[in-house]
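Good morning,

Both structures are done.
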Amino acid sequence: MAIKSFQGKRDASQGKEDAQILVSDYMTKKLITFKAEDSLHHVINQLITNKISGAPVVNDKNELIGIISETDCIKHISESKYYNMPTDINNTVGNNMVTAVDTIDKDMNIFDAAFKFITTHRRRFPVVENGKLIGQLSQKDVLKAAITVKGNTWNG
């Protein structure tokens, strides 16, 4: 009697789904943050010095209250030049930040987060737990996760 098909001994891991790669595995935990009372001049200097395009804004309890970006700073500069007004160095983050901030959960799958980047056209998502800022996920963090994945369609 001949064996028509033999797959070999089954590995214990066969049939099990690979562990999910979570946002918490790749999010940045050491963040540069700003306060609402910080000046835009300070923000611009920090963005340039640290080579970042934006950062979360938190209160004294480390609760997320907004986000400030290069675009917000450029908008302020553009408006003041348009009206031929000098840029007010004392203008604050609180007057220019975005307060309706999309956040993501630390337990979200990194590839679900990637889809959220595509659909919302955001560059970063703060990660909040119990109202407190615990990290941030950027598009670059998703790319770092993607190169660690070894699947059937990925070379590596």
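Second structure follows.
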Amino acid sequence: MTDKKEKTAPIVSVGADTEQQFSKSTEDIITEDDENSNTFDEFQREMIRMMDPSYLKTVSMSELYDTVFQSKPPLVEGLLYPGTYIFAGAPKLGKSFLMAQMAYHISTGTSLWNYPVRKGSVLYLALEDDYRRLQERLYRMFGTQISDNLHFSVSANQIGKGLDEQLQGFIAAHPDTNLIIIDTLQKVREMGGDNYSYASDYEIIARIKRFTDQYGVCVLLVHHTRKQNADDKFEMISGTTGLLGSADGGFILQKEKRTSNKATLEVSGRDQPDQKFHLSRNPQTLLWELEIAETELWKEPPEPLLEKVAEFITADNAVWCGTPTELVEVLGVDMKANTLSMKLNINAGRLFNEYGIYYENKRCHDGRKVRLQFAKA
């Protein structure tokens, strides 16, 4: 059945694989009050279990497939995603210029090297610069084409000593924030006796990662590389392997000759394949320009079910609500309702990123309901 068009913000929820059968007896009817009471009772039982030192919270595979996770669209398609990344290179190599370039493109929503960009507010902590140097650098790079969504600071507190609160305050004032650049990591890291231990390196990145996961933003941590070369370029990151091990990914900027305008940018991360870009630096603007990418932008293979949904949910038919069984019928697909639910649960983020369609699957007092909404509706 087709619902009336309406503009409501979709709510991410947990959906079941199978529809629930309910008796028509009044004794078996679940009322809203009953649902709230059952939810509260389950919450109390969960709290009691968590107080047991031997309790280990687990999630079954079926429960995992039942969950609809929020979408995490890329900031730069195929290149940069929400999460915590280390951007490393030798001193005075041009890292800060490339950071400013990324920040500017994301804050304006203009493509970077022909890679699509998701626009958002950007905070750049340029902790090794002053405002005069920033002004000169930005004017040389971008002229008078300014961005009101790009914000700078040349001072900040350390991690665990006020930086968290400062970043939270910025995000509260700028809810569309999707990128925070910290240049450099060493400037916000607390010094200590175990400063270079694996455990310390891992924990400092893990703490930042918890922040990025909570707020759904990307944090780029500018860092230095060691002088010693290595077969695996990422082993050149200064510090222990705990830094990259805890991060979502890393970037390595490297020149064969310091006097050259050419460099390579190698990328490794959890959400994209390893890539290598050959860059050249414009001597007038000092902008980094892409010469060639050794790895083509990887794209997931087509998913026929998502294409069916995109044909059904359009600007002219923007909202639909019904049961999984009804959705199987309207889409005309040859699969069971629980299989359809699992496929859409798992691909909810992709459905939104590629087709602009919100999806939710939640339990109501009269059974399981699916809701689809065109993003621009």
